[in-house]
Amino acid sequence: MNWDAIGAVGEVVGAFAVVVTLAYLTMQVRQADLGIRASTYQSLLAERANVNMTISANADLASIVRRGLSGEELDPDERQRLHGIALQAFLLFNSAHRLYQSGVIDDDDWRTDLGLIVAWKSWPDFPSWWSTQRYLFNPVFADFVDDCPLDPSSQLDSLLKWMGSSR
Questions:
Q1: Contact 86, 120 (CB under 8 A)
Q2: Alpha-carbon dihedral sign for residues 119, 111, 53, 81
Q3: What is the DSSP annotation of 48-95?
C-alpha cells in the first residue's frame, strides 16, 4: 500500500469521524433544548401553584377574591389586594402566552390559562383594571387579551359556583 492510499483511507476515516461527531452534537443540542423547555414549563407550573397558594392559604384574601370577582363592593384596601392578585395572575398569563407562542407549552396546557383569562375578563371591574395595567405587559399579549373572546355566562359563573358564591 502506498502513502496516497493510506492518506485517502485517513481522509475517509476523518470524514466519518466528523459526521459521527456532528450527529452526536445534534443529539446533545436536542436533549439540552428539551431539558430547558421542561425546566421552563416546571417554572411556569410552580408560579401557577404559587398564585393559587397565595389565595388559598389566606382566608381573608380568598374571601376578597371571591367577593370581588362576584361583583360585591370592596373597600379600598380589599380592592388593592384584589388588584395585586390580578396583576400576579396576568404576569403569569403573559409568561404562559409567550411560552405558548414559542412552542414550549402545547394547546392543552395553554387552554388552562386561556380559561382563566376569560374568567378574569368576566370580572365586573376588569375593564377599569385592565385599562390602567395593560401597559405593564408584552404588547402582543395585551392585544391578545383585548381580542380574547368573552363568554361571561360560563367561565366566571362556573368558578364562582364552585367557590360557593354567585353574581
A1: yes
A2: negative
A3: HHHHHHHHHT-HHHHHHHHHHHTT----HHHHHHHHHHHHHHHHHHHH
Q: How many residues does the chain have?
A: 167
Q: What are phi and psi of 72, to 5 degrees?
A: -70, 155
* Cβ 138 vs Cβ 98: under 8 Å: yes
Distance, CA of 157 to CA of 167 (rounded, Å): 7
CA 71 to the chain's CA centroid = 26
What's the predicted TM-score (pTM) here?
Answer: 0.71
Three cell numbers, residue 157: 359563573
For the chain, count helices (H), then strands (E): 7, 0
Q: CA-to-CA distance for 96 and 44, rounded, in angstroms?
A: 7
Residues 25 and 86 sit within 8 Å (Cβ to Cβ): no
Widest distance between CA atoms in the chain:
95
- List, for residues 53-63, the tens digit of each pLDDT value: 888 899 999 99
